[in-house]
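Progress note, sequence design subtask.
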């Protein structure tokens, strides 16, 4: 196995995937065609929401959500420090201020108690929204966050990039799929190659709010609309007589070109058909890891078996993380670290964040490592990974 490179994550592209892309490349549309709406409709059905908007990537999805919710200069928004920087950056794109909460040391998710403390320590209206992240694939209990949002008049963007198909159990004992729109105003997903569904690049926004949905569609394409009933200029200006001409359109707000292509959407749609199968395989891999590492003295903490976990990542907390990381690389196992705490990135330090501000997040970072986790990881390769981890600490 040592001659085989084992990454922490990778895409699985089948012949069916390749064929649908080829067919789309041979069609009349490379972008702004029917494959995009097809992907959106199928994804909305998979997640269980009313509306889905496909975009160029997950970062674009976050930015559009912040824009649609009206984030502006000086607005304060709470998110977690243990996430990819885009979860926070979308607020800064709009001129808002990012306030990092603390993580729960057991789940690694944004600790709702730290959010409550932030809200209680400031006058009502200080904060505008919360961006919880389904980190590693573990679903945030959004029912609890919704209660906070209603009490403090906040919106919620669920960053579900790690968790398509993941879920939590609410107080009615019902499964609530990540991104289904019941408790969050908007949710976002990513189709980067290491994610559950790969389209090269790409993202999706889901919601049950029709008004937000229409805003997103407009913002995705330069702020342009093509619906007669929404036009502001006159028919005469547009060059028509008794109706607006077919060619007419209006840019009414400042939007962006955040469109996805048809061939990316075709690939995503093909991948979506196998999403359930891939999710089950991830859970099988996690179960084998859990059984192997349970009780090992060198493991401080591990992901554990959690109902509804989508297992984008499999996390361990270990001593001598750097030593293990380098040893695994010497064995062609390319583990990864998720993530460097956002509040200690040089950019965010400029706003006054410093070491010691979020001790649980910082302690987690000093010990975390992500082991290989993807559906095509063979049992033989996984056993090799586990044995190499064990060898490093047992030698």
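Output:
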């Amino acid at each position: 196995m040592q001659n085989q490179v084992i990454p922490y994550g990778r895409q699985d592209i089948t012949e069916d995937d390749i064929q649908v892309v080829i067919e789309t490349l041979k069609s009349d549309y490379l972008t702004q065609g029917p494959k995009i709406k097809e992907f959106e409709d199928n994804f909305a059905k998979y997640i269980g929401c009313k509306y889905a908007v496909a975009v160029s990537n997950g970062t674009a999805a976050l930015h559009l959500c912040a824009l649609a919710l009206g984030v502006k200069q000086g607005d304060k928004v709470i998110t977690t420090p243990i996430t990819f920087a885009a979860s926070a950056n979308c607020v800064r794109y709009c001129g808002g201020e990012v306030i990092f909460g603390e993580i729960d040391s057991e789940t690694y998710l944004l600790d709702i108690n730290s959010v409550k403390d932030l809200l209680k320590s400031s006058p009502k209206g200080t904060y505008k929204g919360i961006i919880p992240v389904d980190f590693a694939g573990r679903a945030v209990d959004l029912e609890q966050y919704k209660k906070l949002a209603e009490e403090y008049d906040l919106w919620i963007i669920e960053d579900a990039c790690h968790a398509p198909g993941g879920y939590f159990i609410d107080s009615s004992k019902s499964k609530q799929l990540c991104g289904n729109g019941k408790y969050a105003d908007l949710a976002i997903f990513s189709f980067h190659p290491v994610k559950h569904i790969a389209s090269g690049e790409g993202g999706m926004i889901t919601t049950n709010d029709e008004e937000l949905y229409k805003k997103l569609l407009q913002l995705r394409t330069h702020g342009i609309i093509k619906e007669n009933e929404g036009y502001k200029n006159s028919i005469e200006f547009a060059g028509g007589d008794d109706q607006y001409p077919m060619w007419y359109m209006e840019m009414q707000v400042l939007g962006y070109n955040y469109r996805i292509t048809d061939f990316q959407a075709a690939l995503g749609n093909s991948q979506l058909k196998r999403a359930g199968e891939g999710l089950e395989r991830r859970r099988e891999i996690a179960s084998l890891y859990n059984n192997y590492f349970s009780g090992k003295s060198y493991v401080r903490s591990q992901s554990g078996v959690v109902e509804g976990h989508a297992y984008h990542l499999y996390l361990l907390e270990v001593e001598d993380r750097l030593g293990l990381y380098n040893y695994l690389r010497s064995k062609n196992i390319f583990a990864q670290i998720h993530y460097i705490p956002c509040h200690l990135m040089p950019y965010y330090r400029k706003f006054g964040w410093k070491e010691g501000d979020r001790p649980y997040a910082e302690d987690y970072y000093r010990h975390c490592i992500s082991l290989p986790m993807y559906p095509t990881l063979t049992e033989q390769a996984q056993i090799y990974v586990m044995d190499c981890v064990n060898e490093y600490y047992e030698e």
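The chain has two domains: 15-272, 275-394. Work on this subtask will continue into the next period as scheduled.
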